[in-house]
TrEMBL record:
Species of origin: Anatilimnocola aggregata
Primary subcellular site in the record, as a coarse category: secreted
Cofactor: Ca(2+)
Stretches that traverse the bilayer: none
Protein name, entry field: Right handed beta helix domain-containing protein
Location of this chain's protein in the cell: Secreted
Coiled coil feature spans: none
Length: 688
């Protein structure tokens, strides 16, 4: 293929993948999230190098007029102070960055202003020549195709880079079931399912049947996806429409012939798309990264002063892996996972790829000074394994649509400092979770003033998650909106020292077992300590936790200044809903840890938000009305605890995430997402 034809094809597919106008028709499925757009700006003042995947050549001088062709080549030529500009187009490469900048002269790799460069670890033929890349499989299932070529090197069985709790590592006895073919539709970037078995890919069944043996016999179709045949080296694909009742607009109704739609297809396991090892003072800006398989898309190891800014990252297991790294900044970036609109937790955990999106690994020295800010983390199985870090700051982010665990803070550690603030945390089955990796890994004591600090967040669980397909027809689609737990664990670990204050947390259905304070007042209190102060907890149905179920003996928890409300039953409660508890031995025992006693400074009352509807989350305004009982009703938190809005309280602290009169901030890339709804963009960037 000559350069002119390649340029034209790349240009066309670039338009399809990232530049389709709003309202355009998609051959596949409408995008789940906004597609990336080029960043604007001027060229850097200092030395500049240029790369162009369509018209460059690595024998050129690397100038704007005579660019290089590959980022891999440019990465070997760059010097401190240089900026490498990638012209718009797709770079089918796996790149290792090996050169460092300095504090005074950092190295920058960026898309050319006004253009969008894509680093793709996949195979270009499936995007550029879909018609020639697939052929029908006559003896397969209806709508099944196989790749025109064999790719035997995909099954090299590289070992995984990381151990992930609750996943398959190592895959004793089932290595042959590891999905080796993953990808996305190129026009919408909606992910394709990575199948473990051919039976599932071919199955006409979409119901979660009564037992695992029945599903193993009949199979479970999980929507458009691929399976790699280790015997023939061929990729099998099927883009059949969903037939499951209740999926509605989440069902796949697009093109079923892969020869008619460009695809991003990545094969194999264990190869990073972008690796930064042992380098310092490097910035990556404005790129799209995609084409990872069951391996890290971006791997940062043993590096220092690294900035990842305005990236859009599709897929990866994980999308970002961080080891032994100091001073990493990830800002204004969008991470999109492996969960398509029709994909449930059961599909990914038991029949596909049980992916984490962000993993911080426990190499030495421990990760330190990590910031994740103004980012969007969406549409995956598990979100972030954050336990292996000190001084981690996670703020102004959107976390939404994770069908299993959210932020994994890990068990109690001696020196554990995570700061989670001013985020919008939406649909997650368990927003805050922890795993036990080793028995007795948690110390009895801990360093004072350390722990996990969670403050000034809006945690809105009302939409629920797609946990599992139904066992029988359900035209209502109620199974798409199952609410999990605010907090939970796996394996019975000692929970971390937790300071949970000034948050607003919302649910529809009753909390699990009616636990006090959405579980924070009852769960995981063995050998740890916890503060739960000045939070708003609202349910649509009964008042959360007023029954005090699950508390057999109080733990070391200090809870006060919290406001609880149930939209339906709140007005019907007795005037003193805590009176029975305060007359019990449990109340007296709680004073051992918190002298006033549990519930003494808590109240049941309508918070009086400016606008709030259970059935219409998009209209929410969680500012407090002037007569809200949450005003001036909180307790003072220790001055050593961080609180960016402490000075916004006019008198005593207001309860909840937003003090009365304080403006709401945007979250996500450039603050473009509403803190209240998680959907409608704010009018402008509301960055501090």
């Amino acid at each position: 293929m000559n350069d002119r034809i390649r340029f034209l094809l790349t240009f066309v597919w670039l338009l399809l993948a990232v530049s389709i106008a709003p309202g355009a028709e998609y051959r596949s499925h409408p995008p789940q999230r906004p597609l990336p757009t080029p960043t604007k700006g001027e060229l850097a003042v200092g030395p500049k190098l240029f790369v162009d995947a369509t018209r460059g050549h690595d024998s050129n001088a690397g100038t704007e007029a005579a660019p290089w062709r590959s980022l891999r080549y440019a990465a070997r030529k760059v010097q401190p102070g240089d900026t490498i500009y990638l012209r718009g187009g797709t770079y089918y490469e796996h790149v290792a960055l090996v050169r460092s900048g300095t504090a005074e002269a950092p190295i920058t790799i960026a898309s050319y202003p006004g253009e969008l460069a894509i680093l793709d670890g996949g195979l270009r033929e499936f995007a550029e020549d879909p018609a020639g890349s697939w052929r029908p499989l006559p003896d397969g299932a209806e709508g099944e195709y196989i790749s025109a070529k064999s790719y035997f090197d995909a099954d090299t069985r590289l070992p995984p880079h990381q151990f992930l709790p609750g996943a398959w590592e190592p895959m004793w006895g089932i290595e042959d079931e590891r999905p080796l073919a993953l990808g996305n539709f190129a026009d919408s970037l909606v992910p394709l399912h990575g199948y473990r078995t051919l039976k599932d890919l071919r199955s006409p069944n979409e119901y979660w049947l009564g037992n695992k043996q029945e599903i193993a016999t009949i199979g479970l179709y999980g929507g458009p996806g691929m399976w790699f045949n280790r015997q023939t080296g061929r990729v099998h694909i099927r883009l059949a429409h969903n037939q499951l009742a209740g999926l509605g607009k989440q069902a796949y109704r697009g093109e079923t012939d892969p020869r008619r739609v460009p695809l991003i297809v990545a094969l194999g396991f264990g190869a990073n798309v972008l690796r930064l090892t042992g380098i310092k003072h490097v910035t990556i800006q404005g790129l799209v990264l995609r084409g990872a398989t069951g391996s890290p898309l971006i791997h940062v190891y043993g590096s220092e002063n690294i900035e990842l800014d305005h990236l859009t990252v599709y897929g990866g297991f994980p999308a970002l892996l961080v080891n032994a790294t100091k001073s990493l900044r990830v800002t204004n970036s969008a991470f999109r996972g492996l969960a398509a609109p029709w994909t449930s937790r059961a599909h990914m955990k038991y029949r596909g790829t049980a992916s984490y999106q962000i993993v911080l690994q426990n190499n030495q020295p421990l990760n330190d000074d990590i910031e994740l800010a103004w980012c969007e983390f969406t549409d995956d199985h598990d979100f972030a394994y954050l336990r292996c870090a000190t001084n981690l700051r996670f703020h102004h982010n959107l976390v939404d649509n994770f069908n299993d665990d959210g932020l994994e803070s890990g068990p109690k550690l001696r020196a554990h400092t995570l700061f989670i603030s001013q985020n919008r945390i939406g649909a997650c089955l368990i927003p805050f979770s922890q795993h036990e990796i080793d028995k007795d890994e948690s110390p009895v004591d801990h360093t004072p003033e350390t722990g996990v600090f969670v403050y000034r967040n809006v945690i809105d669980l009302r939409r629920g998650t797609y946990k599992s397909p139904p066992k029988e027809a359900d035209a209502t689609g109620s199974y798409l909106h199952e609410e999990g737990h605010l907090v939970g664990d796996h394996g019975g670990p000692t929970w971390p020292v937790l300071r949970f204050y000034h948050n607003t947390t919302l649910r529809k259905t009753p909390v699990f077992r009616d636990y006090f304070l959405f579980g924070l007042g009852a769960q995981g209190l063995r050998n740890t300590e916890r503060d739960v102060l000045n939070n708003i907890f609202v349910q649509a149905e009964q008042v959360p936790g007023a029954g005090f179920a699950g508390i057999k003996e109080p733990g070391n928890v200090r809870a006060g200044g919290n406001l609880l409300w149930g939209l339906k039953e709140g007005p019907e409660l007795a005037r003193e809903p805590f009176a029975k508890f305060r007359a019990s031995p449990l109340f007296i025992a709680s004073r051992k840890y918190y002298e006033p006693g549990l519930t003494t400074h808590d109240k049941v009352a309508d918070p009086k938000f400016v606008a709030y509807s259970v059935d219409s989350p998009a209209t929410a305004d969680l500012h407090l009305q002037p007569d809200s009982p949450a005003l001036n009703s909180g307790l003072k938190v220790p001055a050593a605890w961080p609180d960016p809005l402490r000075d916004a309280d006019q008198a005593e602290p207001d309860i909840g995430a937003i003090p009365h009169g304080a403006p709401a901030w945007g979250v996500g890339v450039d603050g473009r997402i509403s803190l209240f709804t998680g959907e409608a963009p704010v009018r402008q960037s509301l960055r501090d």
